[in-house]
Amino acid sequence: EWIGVWECLILQCIQLFPKTHCFSDLWFCQPLGSTSQLVSKSVFAQDDWDIYSFHINSTVTSRYATTVITSRVANRMNEPKEIEFHVQIPKNKKQNNLFSPHSLKLNLTKLNSVGRTMEEFKTSVTVAAHKKVTFELTYEELLKRTHGKYELQIYARPMKPVEDFKADVHIHEKAGVSFVDVKGGLSTKALANAITKTHADKQAWVHFYPTVDQQKNCDSCGEEGMNGDLVITYDVNRDNGFGDIKTSDGYFIHHFAPSSLPRIPKNVVFVIDRSGSMRGRKITQTRTALLRILNDLAEDDFFGLISFDREIIHFKPELVQATALNLEGAREFVRNIEDRGSTDINAAVLEGARILNEHPREGSASILILLTDGDPTSGVTNFDTIQSNVKQAIAGKFPLYCLGFGFDVKFEFLEKMSLQNNGVARRIYEDSDADLQLKGFYDEVATPLLTDITMIYVGGTNLTKTNFSQYYNGSEIVVAGEIIDNNVEIFTPQVVAISVRFILTFSNTNGSVDSSVSDGFLQRVWAYLTVKQLLEKELLLSGPEKEKVNKEALELSLTYGFVTPLTSMVVTKPEGESSEIHHKPKEREEPLPQSYHRSPMISYDQRRRFIKSFSGRSASLSKQQKYQTQINNFKIKSVELIISFALILYLKHLKHI
Questions:
Q1: Cα dihedral sign for 186, 188, 193, 195?
Q2: Per-residue pLDDT tens for 103-133?
Q3: How far apart are CA 257 and CA 282, in angstroms?
Q4: How much is the mean pLDDT over the chain?
Q5: Confidence of residue 515 (pLDDT cuts 50, 70, 90)
Q6: Which of 541, 572, 525, 603 is nearest to 109 (CA)?
């Protein structure tokens, strides 16, 4: 009887205090049939905050993707709650316009890299009791074409299963969409019916609407919801070798990707690190990748193999043709590569350059590929000296591609050395598929179609990069710029390049230029490309020239709202919005007047340093918050009275007994 009375009283208290921490671990008696049993129940441990909506919306126009992530969160508690917004986006994308309608200016913090292609960011804000907050992040990227397709990666990790979860991708390409496909960690059998794909001529749509149960039970899901990606791949129709060019509001963008061209025979030299740090799985996977690459060489290709530690070992001291006999000898050489010794990168790369320089072939394309997992520890070890020596040896005659195996390597050193010699650097991740990563990179450069490409734009100015050493099958060259005085009549684009033994000229023979692009779009693409290339150029400079390029990149980043290594990201409150954010003083700090609680600052440094930081202040507590405080005080008094009354009744009952 008294158990029932106590239960009613406790439940009455619970009704007065919905979702508070006061009863987060409450013991009470619960009737089960005709008996009562003492149980422990965490009544309010669940869902003190709730993500009630999570939307990802990505729009792709002319290979330029704008993705908006919107997370809506509610604080269900009777007290303020700190809410965090975590988001993962593809590396090296330009972020802008992160805001929270019910928050103040806070910095977005870069936490770390996640896997191979993602970076994690977060921000947090303290939300008043029973209030909601909306986080929105916009990031942009110019999709890169590799292996004959573009890839858009969408990462979904809302932190909880969400009732209203939607991911929508809309692709619009004036040239026409040739195909669209969906893959990735969330493209599984368990989620197959949550994905819909539609393709119609110049447009394509992908929708991903998983149910709450699906968000808990898929391969990369759990009680904390989904944690995986969707990768949307597509390509466009290509009717002519010149590509397509768009103009709008005094700007243009040119996508150049001819495909109906004969392949150019190549001369390729592989410079392979076999120092002691390559022992174990690294050297095994390197051998596996090289054996697969050798199988793909055409008979009109010439190749060279060098393995090095503090000494250099040749397969042959000169280029050899990829005949069956030479390939079999090369396979035996690769199988016998063993780890040992220190690392003389300088001597090895110079030897690779010597082999290519001493055996030029007309009508061929030369490529030098370095694979290493560490720093130079033997011979010349100064980074600047090595870079200077290599640049002088190559002299702009062929590209150098540097593959950095693992995280012990000084990747910036390899990146700078590649950029100085018209190549790129790529990190190879230590994983079970490292051999596939190596082979995948080789496939990107395995089929050269053009060399010495020059993009010419009469009537254009402020152009992005216009000279390229080589163009490979399945890739794409993109150039953007301004049109002088917006005079499209005199604007004349042209491409000159070498194919095998002939000079080819690509012209816009039909004279068609697409001018249907919305105002401001091409200007933004131009700014994106310009900032990206300025940051690459900055790596190669020093002194006043470096500062000048930094300043130019910074000004463009701030003008167009791009987050770069030179700028910081800030969460802002849209104008006209009232603040429902609760701010508490730091520990050991006297609280400021309620109308001027300081907004907490979070430091953010994407790669080198802060250029600009921000601060903000909150508005005073709203009338609604004050009213809520009065209600809570009333509830506390009510509970005290109920418990006192119950104790009096219980004592009287004991006295009666």
A1: positive
A2: 333 445 554 555 677 777 777 888 888 899 8
A3: 35
A4: 81
A5: low
A6: 603
How is 226-277 classified by DSSP, letter by letter? --EEEEEEEEE---STT-EEEEETTEEEEEE---SSPPPPEEEEEEEE-SGG
* Domain 266-395+402-418 CATH class label: alpha beta
Among 23-32, 220-229, 610-619, where is mean pLDDT lowest? Answer: 610-619
CA dist., res. 548 & res. 553, Å (int): 9
Residue 647's pLDDT band (boundaries 50, 70, 90)? confident
Contact present, 557 and 567 (Cβ < 8 Å): yes
Q: Does domain 49-236 have CATH number 2.60.40?
A: yes
**Domain segments of the chain: what residues?**
49-236, 266-395+402-418
Task: For residue 130, give both structure tokens.
Answer: 């029973």
Angle between helices 2-16 and 623-656 (to 10 degrees): 170
* pLDDT tens by residue, 140-156: 999 999 999 999 999 99
Residue 292: burial class (beta carbons within 10 Å; 0-12, 13-18, 19+): middle
Would you call 126 helix, strand, or coil by DSSP?
strand
pLDDT score, position 612: 28
Using alpha carbons, select from 459, 520, 525, 560 the residue that is nearest to residue 248.
520
One-letter amino acid of 23: F
Instruction: Give CA separation, 59 vs 9, 205, 341, 449, 631, in Å.
Output: 55, 9, 52, 31, 46
The C-alpha angle with vertex 255 and arms to 250 and 258, in degrees rounded to 5, equals 145
Cα distance between residue 123 and residue 563, in whole Å: 15
User: What six digits make up the tokens of 24?
Assistant: 């987060």
The pTM score is 0.78
pLDDT band at 222 (very low <50, low <70, confident <90, very high): confident
